[in-house]
């Protein structure tokens, strides 16, 4: 059964914390990206820690190795348990993120292919496969691959073996739990939960849907 990860892209701190608290019983982790971190500051990790859930920092880190390491160190020092980086900057840049994760006893995930329509422009033609293979060699904990393209996730699974695949694009972007749950280790859902009239009920229904799946 894959984890259910809430993408908390809510830019009002009070609202974000209320949604996190309400959804916490139904989810396995919270992903914080630029929208919330820029609005509320990195200290949001300290506030969200009260949910007791792992906190994934989605900053899609994409710089030279030294800068990557400095960014990741700040993220882990703030209290996050995982960092997400881009893979297209090369193996050395990914390795720097993995090294920081190891130093801080955290995890590192690498974006292999993106879920939106434009994600096909540059990640196709073997690049995503190469990024996935590099993520394994670099010692990352897993990759990010698109729930909007289960066929591509199946291909990328062949490159990462037992490493984790976390998959965004379920709900608003058109991906479904039924078509992706058996292929991945984590399903990332944002708007379909936090924009729902009752976010906790929406989270509960996604949690139930992925429970029906085998993985
Ligand atoms: O469910 P949504 O569409 O509201 O939100 C999806 C979340 O996943 C949102 O935080 C995106 O930034 C993120 N995401 C994608 O939607 N597509 C990708 O290819 C990659 C990510 C992501 O999480 O990258 C780490």
Could you walk me through the main structural features you see in this protein, from its secondary elements to its overall organization?
The structure is a single chain. With 215 residues, the chain is an alpha/beta fold. It has one domain (3-210): Aldolase class I (TIM Barrel), CATH 3.20.20. It is 46% helix and 18% strand. It has eleven helices and eight strands. Strands 1-2-3-4-5-6-7-8 form an eight-stranded parallel barrel, surrounded by six helices. Helix 5 links the parallel strand 4 and strand 5 (107-111). Helix 7 (127-138) packs parallel to helix 8. It is globular, with a radius of gyration of 16 Å. It starts with a strand and ends with a helix. The mean pLDDT is 97. It binds 6-(methoxycarbonyl)uridine 5'-(dihydrogen phosphate) (O7M). 6-(methoxycarbonyl)uridine 5'-(dihydrogen phosphate) binds at residues 7, 9, 33, 58, 60, 84, 111, 114-115, 119, 144, 146, 168-169, 171-173, 188-192. Residues 7, 9, 33, 58, 60, 84, 111, 114-115, 119, 144, 146, 168-169, 171-173, 188-192 line the site of 6-(methoxycarbonyl)uridine 5'-(dihydrogen phosphate) (O7M).
């Amino acid at each position: 059964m894959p984890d259910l990860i809430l993408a908390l892209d809510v830019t009002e701190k009070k609202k974000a914390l209320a949604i996190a608290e309400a959804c916490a019983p139904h989810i396995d982790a919270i992903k914080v990206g630029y929208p919330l971190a820029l609005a509320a500051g990195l200290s949001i990790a300290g506030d969200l820690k009260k949910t007791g859930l792992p906190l994934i920092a989605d900053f899609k880190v994409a710089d030279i190795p030294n800068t990557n390491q400095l960014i990741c160190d700040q993220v882990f020092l703030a209290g996050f348990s995982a960092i997400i980086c881009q893979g297209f900057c090369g193996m050395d840049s990914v390795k720097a993120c993995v090294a920081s994760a190891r130093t801080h006893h955290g995890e590192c995930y690498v974006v292999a292919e993106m879920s939106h329509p434009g994600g096909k422009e540059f990640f196709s033609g073997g690049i995503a496969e190469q990024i996935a293979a590099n993520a394994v060699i670099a010692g990352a904990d897993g990759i990010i691959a698109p729930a909007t393209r289960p066929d591509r996730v199946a291909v990328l699974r062949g490159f990462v073996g037992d490493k984790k695949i976390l998959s965004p694009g379920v709900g608003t972007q058109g991906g479904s739990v039924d078509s992706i749950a058996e292929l991945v280790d984590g399903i990332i859902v944002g708007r379909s939960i936090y924009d729902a009239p009752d976010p906790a009920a929406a989270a509960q229904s996604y949690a139930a849907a992925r429970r029906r799946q085998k993985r």
